[in-house]
Amino acid sequence: MPNLRFAAPKERRVAIVTGGARGIGGASAIRIAEEGRDIVIADVEDGSDTVKQIEALGQKALYIKTDVTDEAAVHALVEKTVETFGRLDILICCAGVLGKEKPFLEQTAAEFIRVMTINVNGVFYAHQAAIPYMLKQGWGRCVTITSGARHGATNLVPYGTSKGAVFSFINALGNAYPKQGVFVNGVEPGRALTEMVVPRFSAEHLANPGTPIGRYSDAEEVAEVVEMLSSERNTYTTGSVWSVKGGTG
After folding, report:
1. Is 0.90 topped by the overall pTM?
2. Number of domains the chain contains
3. Which residues contact 11 (CB under 8 A, 6 or more apart)?
4. Closest Cα partner for 238 from 191, 170, 188, 189?
5. Are 44 and 66 spatial neighbours (Cβ–Cβ below 8 Å)?
6. Residue 149 · residue 160 · CB < 8 Å
7. What CATH number did the domain enclosing 102 receive?
8. Does a structural domain hold residue 3?
9. Contact call for residues 141 and 230 (beta carbons, < 8 A)
10. Read out DSSP for 206-233?
């Protein structure tokens, strides 16, 4: 580790990754495990394959089927993590849905509520459940995935609104507990080549999307930033949203 005088000693810490079965969540879980962390995968989808990859790295891993819209289930997830591993140090919130890509007047109230409940309530529940344990031990790192759609996406109004709320949430909580050693940050990946993005575009667009860097990211590139923000190397960043877009804007 670099000579960071305020860095905590590197330990075999424990992380929860919501939405960790695949995509950016799965890549983040594996990348954090590579740094010697034990991982709990929380997802409605089967996370057993990601668990196997983490165990192959010599780390402990556990999959707990979790619906992040269920507040009681999220608190049970955190309690099970602490019961199993004896601690909780890192929270990564990647669980989310894009929702239906339709003009605003074709969106329904039910769809708006569904997207907001998963993308916003799920993040709220997870932080409320996890942060008390982090405060007790005097160290914690929370990282949530947001999106540039928060600036306004005409055909994704529920999704964009949810990610704007997440951005505000990160800004607020980032200032809440840093003196107690708990940092809250976000990562804004633009478009990564995941199952949420690839089916929406033609092969020609994916090969030349018009980004300044000339391509979309791999999930593993986003995971590098997630890992840094969740690590002991992060000694002075809280309340920020890091852009991983291959350019500005």
Report:
1. yes
2. 1
3. 89
4. 170
5. yes
6. yes
7. 3.40.50.720
8. no
9. yes
10. HHS---TTSSPBPHHHHHHHHHHHTSTT
In a domain, 130, yes or no: yes
Tokens 């507990």 label which residue? 177
Three-state DSSP class for residue 11: coil
User: Is beta strand 38-43 parallel, antiparallel or unpaired with respect to 61-65?
Assistant: parallel
Q: Where are the alpha helices (DSSP H) in the chain?
A: 23-34, 48-55, 71-85, 109-116, 122-137, 157-174, 203-207, 219-229
Looking at the domain assignment, is residue 249 inside a domain?
Answer: no
The 90-93 sheet, strands edge to edge = 61-65, 38-43, 14-18, 90-93, 140-145, 182-188, 241-243
Render pLDDT for 35-74 as a digit per residue (tens, 0 to 9).
Answer: 999 999 999 999 999 999 999 999 999 999 999 999 999 9
Half-sphere exposure of 72 (CA within 13 A, CB side): 0
* Within a domain: 28: yes
The rounded distance, in Å, linking the Cα atoms of 82 and 108 is 39
Range of 193's domain? 14-243
> Could you tell me the two tokens for 56?
């192959």
Helices (H), ranges, 105-247 = 109-116, 122-137, 157-174, 203-207, 219-229
Distances (CA, A) of 82 to 13, 92, 112, 237: 11, 16, 34, 26
d(CA 106, CA 199): 21
**Which residues are part of the catalytic machinery?**
159
Q: Name the residue type at position 173.
A: L
Q: pLDDT digit string (tens) for 64-92?
A: 999 999 999 999 999 999 999 999 999 99
End-to-end CA gap in the chain = 32
